[in-house]
Amino acid sequence: MFLWMIYAATVGLLLTGAVELIQPLRRNRSGRERWVWAAALLATGLVPLTTTLWPTGGASSGVAASVLGDVIVLAGEATGVSTSGPDLRAIWAPRADLLLRAGWGAATLILFGYLAGSTWQLRRALHRWPRATVEGIPVRLGPVPGPAVVGVIAPEIVVPRWLLDLPPEDRRLILSHEQEHVAARDPLLMVTAWVFAALTPWNPGSWMQLRRLRGAMEADCDRRVVRDRPWAEARRYGELLVDVGARVAPGAPLAPAAFAEGGTHLERRLRTMFELYPPLSRLRTMLAAAGALGLAAAVYFLPGPDRATLLGPERPPDFEAYTQPPVLLNPMEVGEALQAGYPALLRDAGISGTTEMWVYVGADGAPTDLRVNRSSGHQQLDEAAMRAADVMRFDPALNGDEPVGAWLSVPLAFTPPAARAPAEADEVEISPPPPPQQADIAAGPTFTPYTVAPDLVNRQAIGAALEAAYPPLLRDAGIGGTTRVWFLIDATGTVQETRVESSSGHERIDAAALEVASQMEFTPALNRDRPVAVWVAFPITFQVRGPR
């Protein structure tokens, strides 16, 4: 959650900077500057949400990827033996996230309560203030520091009594500004924007945009007031802004629901109203436009956290019993899809990653549901993995002799190509590499060609081993995880070595996964008809299942 909040705040600041840069390019008498800031505020809230929940990506290309091993899904029951000590990180990380969410919710509720309370009090006070007609305009006379528009649905103009002492032409100028606020329904827009900012009270970009939106509303109304007036009246209006600002500045604002006149943004308002900004040179115009486009592009390309960062890790799908797992029928086609989908920028930068997918294989062998189980850490890799997983075709799982639907955890790995000599890059015919020697295999995970993957033969025993190895402290707290383990399986099907390929994030779950992995028994991998030693990577998942 913290990473997502940092991402959202960064988006807000980038959008604020982009609008600041384009503001000098849009200054005119149209009176529409408010909508630029309103759009920025809306985008600040929606961009982080949509890119996290509904990511979209363009087509990309690449040249190297691999599907490592076959797939196993293992689920632990809520039983087990004691462990030697707690995993403090596993215990406190969820609690810290919960406290962060609780603080966010409390701050938002406090702000909403302030808005609702101040609006209610202001509405009650409004009914006690006497009505009057000033220069033919209905107003209320109230103990306010300066002119204001009060109310969201049915706004009314409220003026202080000192306004009655001004000359009639000054009163008309001041009230014309307030009428512009009423006609534009500025109180409704301001309250809506304030509520939108209060939804993310920790985002500095939202509050900066809210402040600039208010200033843009004042400047827009100023421009409309002086647009068709003689210069003498426009100049007098500017003098009145200074006088009113001097009277109001020491006072406190009424509430978000009251659009009160104030001394904020006064210099900017005067400059904008009389167009006192010097014209931008062609060079400055180009630099401002390029800077705004650059910041907007930074928002688009800024990598956002995955869905689990905002909503928490997805609960693994329900486990369904089967005696024989689904078998992938088209590994070559999946490998080609991975190759075609490897984002070129990440590939060229040497950035790799593995996305673990939940794939539901129906009784007919077709995948009907795809979900990201664990992100690679790169949104573009996750999107490419989703597209590659969509081309998978299986023989369905069997429960006895009956085809059944089953969930599989499928790791899809992207690895950049190793440097090749120029002569090798020009080869047209590609042949598989010769099988490595046993000593080379034992040195570390390496690829060995095989046509038939190893198959787990002691599933029932491994299910019991999972139940016994599940750390009770994590099990009782409802904490699970998936550890991806490398297996070195020799030509007889015996597990010679196990290593953690990617951690679950919990040391005790990783240790339990290695303990279970050491008890697994396999049929040997076959390269055509010959048994071969291979390294394969399988995910081992511990999860708490609800009552049956």
Automatic annotation (TrEMBL):
Domain of life: Bacteria
Transmembrane parts of this sequence: 6-23, 35-54, 102-122, 283-302
Stored Pfam families: Peptidase_M56, TonB_C
InterPro entries referenced in this protein's UniProt entry, alphabetically: Peptidase_M56 (IPR008756), TonB-dependent_transducer (IPR051045), TonB/TolA_C (IPR006260), TonB_C (IPR037682)
Protein keywords: Cell inner membrane, Cell membrane, Membrane, Protein transport, Transmembrane, Transmembrane helix, Transport
TonB C-terminal domain boundaries: 327-423, 455-548
Region (Disordered): 422-445
Topology versus the membrane: Single-pass membrane protein
Alphabetized CDD domains for the sequence: M56_BlaR1_MecR1_like (cd07341)
Compartment(s): Cell inner membrane
Family that this chain belongs to: Belongs to the TonB family.
Protein name in the entry: M56 family metallopeptidase
Source organism of this protein record: Gaopeijia maritima
